[in-house]
Amino acid sequence: MLNVDLHCHSNISDGMLAPAAVAARAKANGVDVWALTDHDEVGGIPEARAAAADLGLQYVPGVEISVTWAGQTVHVVGLHIDETNETLVQGLAATRSGRERRAHQMAAQLAAAGIPDAFEGALKFVGNPDLISRMHFARYILELGVCADIPEVFRNYLTDGNPGFVPHRWATLQQAVGWIRGAGGIAVIAHPGRYKFSELEFGAFFDEFKRFGGAAMEVTTGSHTVDQYAQYAKAANQYGLLASRGSDFHGPGESRVDLGALPALPDGVVPVWHNWAI
Ligand code: AMP
Ligand code: MN
Ligand code: MN
Ligand code: MN
Questions:
Q1: What is the pTM of this model?
Q2: How many angstroms is it from 119 CA to the middle of ligand 4?
Q3: Quick check: is 108 in a domain?
Q4: In this structure, are 57 and 173 located in the same domain?
């Protein structure tokens, strides 16, 4: 079996390692085909591509775009994108803008909840000043010792209904899929099992995604339980979407699943890489 890992992060967004170090870890873990998919950013691609070439690792240029759909945040991964495409580059810049202002608002809420200096604290973990994310705040809160691990931080802070949550208007689904397709890429719904949609909403979401030209969904991801692998394999086939596999690795010791460490896709789905020259 080819070990394909099409979702992970470097310190160009909210991962902990530089792109070349992520490539080296993917190679060491036995990954054959690898995509770096930083949030709303393609700045890590040149380093990732060069490192993969040095290591003999097959490389797929990627990105993970933040989207607001039906009032909720969803993520759309783009694979095999031309990262120099002007519309994509401008769209991602627009999507990133506002993160700093949001971060100051998050810090103010956290201060009121007894977590002081969170903007400066989060910034210590930021590799790219354009991309300050909730994950950077989570690392700071963990460092303070008020929570035992990252999942506990997100159960108590930074999420809807908890201190430090500031809703944000990201790209639209149509924009994200359009930018990816316009850059020659394949659009993939990231970790569908994380979205709090009703069955009806999921149906509308998958249908709309397909109508805009989306092609695949993640079935086997570090964000899904074992039961969800089967559940979303079924959904992928039901909606005529290809299936993707990606760890969503952010950093050693922090992520539940390491690069290349997921099980294979369930039988019966069509892998998103079925027609790639690999
Ligand atoms: P943002 O794009 O600033 O809203 O930050 C979202 C990031 O926070 C995600 O990409 C994850 O890295 C992290 N995150 C959000 N929710 C959770 C969670 N429940 N558990 C672990 N990480 C999370
Ligand atoms: Mn992240
Ligand atoms: Mn995501
Ligand atoms: Mn991700």
A1: 0.98
A2: 22
A3: yes
A4: yes
